[in-house]
From TrEMBL:
One of its GO terms (molecular function) is DNA binding. This is LacI family DNA-binding transcriptional regulator. Pfam families: LacI (PF00356), Peripla_BP_3 (PF13377). InterPro entries: HTH_LacI, LacI/GalR-like_sensor, Lambda_DNA-bd_dom_sf, Peripla_BP_I. Coiled coil: none annotated.
Length: 355
């Protein structure tokens, strides 16, 4: 005699769906998926017991839950004796040096609140939503999200967005957001070059579909109004190679700019490589300004002038806000964290012709 299968005695698929306006329950999901209520509980248990159910059945249950708008997280929290003590930090690229700075701050602050941190990279909104509804994490920190990560999080999941649009709703509601003053940083970068006499300025801009880069672009355009500007897009996920290629194109032009602003320091390091390939000296032939102030900025030759984005503070403030949410306290988005230009040796006065 075989052991009982948790998927036995299913309800008839699609029977007795919830009346309009009533919040769906696990029983409703079971009816729609054609499984037992115990199976639904196993699928959304957030433990290894969920693996007692076949992958096909788990998929059917999740699809039924999605169709009904069922959110198991709230019920799961009521049933648990305590929290997992874990929070998820989601970043676009775990290899991005700036996100290492954020992680330092997150770990520092999380320890003060008795929380452990798990880091994910490149997760889409569907994966984040699933992680949030399986009770594996008490809350989410979502750093520098792209546009596809904002809409599907359940409304009852504690989440704080870092370096994100404070006006963009997620899960149908506004979320606490910790911003960086990237616009002020970009203005400071352009004004620094203008103060050195540069009037023809290049811009290696990110093509990533994220709020933080749209803000940088808008700030650059406003600060560079009235100047001669040459811009090229760079795919940040391709790293230095893509930046080096775009910088080659920019610096090989007959009317090349004698100053370039880069959307981050990794792109700036690619420009350094391209300048060396072309026999150009930094800053004598081309002044360079980056953004992020990652550790490599001070190691480049010459050291890079860049905008300091306080990633550690971003992480600390984000965790403090998330911990407050977990305690049931109201949290509002604070003023953007201050940024500042760090002037090193990669910039100098424009050539005599004023370019």
């Amino acid at each position: 005699m075989t052991a009982a299968d948790p998927t036995q005695e299913p309800a008839e698929p699609g029977s007795e769906l919830p009346a309009s306006g009533r919040r769906p329950t696990g029983r409703d999901v079971a009816r729609l998926a054609g499984v037992s209520q115990a199976t639904v509980s196993l699928v959304f248990s957030g433990t290894e017991s969920g693996h007692r159910v076949s992958e096909a059945t788990r998929h059917r249950v999740r699809e039924a839950a999605r169709a009904l708008g069922y959110r198991p997280q709230a019920a799961g929290r009521q049933l648990r004796l305590g929290r997992s003590g874990m929070i998820l930090l989601a970043v676009p690229n775990i290899l991005g040096p700036f996100f290492g700075r954020v992680l330092v701050g997150v770990h520092e602050e999380a320890g003060k609140h008795g929380l452990a941190v798990v880091v994910s990279s490149g997760w889409g909104s569907a994966t984040l939503a699933e992680a949030a509804t399986t009770s594996r994490f008490d809350g989410l920190l979502i750093c520098s999200p792209d546009d596809s990560q904002l809409g599907e999080l359940p409304s009852d999941v504690p989440a704080v967005f870092l370096d994100a649009d404070p006006s963009a709703p997620s899960g149908g509601q506004a979320r606490p957001t910790v911003e960086l003053d990237v616009a002020g940083g970009m203005r400071a970068a352009v004004e620094h070059l203008v103060g050195l006499g540069h009037r023809r300025i290049g811009h290696l801009r990110s093509t990533h579909s994220a709020y933080t880069f749209r803000v940088r672009q808008a700030a650059f355009e406003a600060a560079a109004k009235g100047l001669e500007v040459v811009e090229l897009g760079v795919t940040l996920n391709e790293g230095q190679r893509a930046a080096r290629s775009a910088a080659h194109q920019l610096l090989s032009a007959p009317d090349r700019p004698h100053a370039v602003v880069c959307d981050d320091d990794v792109v700036a390091s690619g420009l350094y490589q391209a300048a060396a390939d072309l026999g150009l000296r930094i800053p004598a032939d081309v002044s360079v300004v980056g953004m992020d102030n990652i550790p490599v900025a001070d190691l480049l030759a010459p050291p890079l002038t860049t905008v300091d984005l306080p990633g550690e503070a971003l992480g600390r403030v984000g965790v403090a806000a998330l911990a407050a949410l977990l305690r049931g306290e109201p949290v509002v988005s604070a003023a953007p964290l201050e940024t500042g230009l760090v002037v090193r040796n990669s910039t100098c006065a424009a050539p005599a012709d004023g370019d």
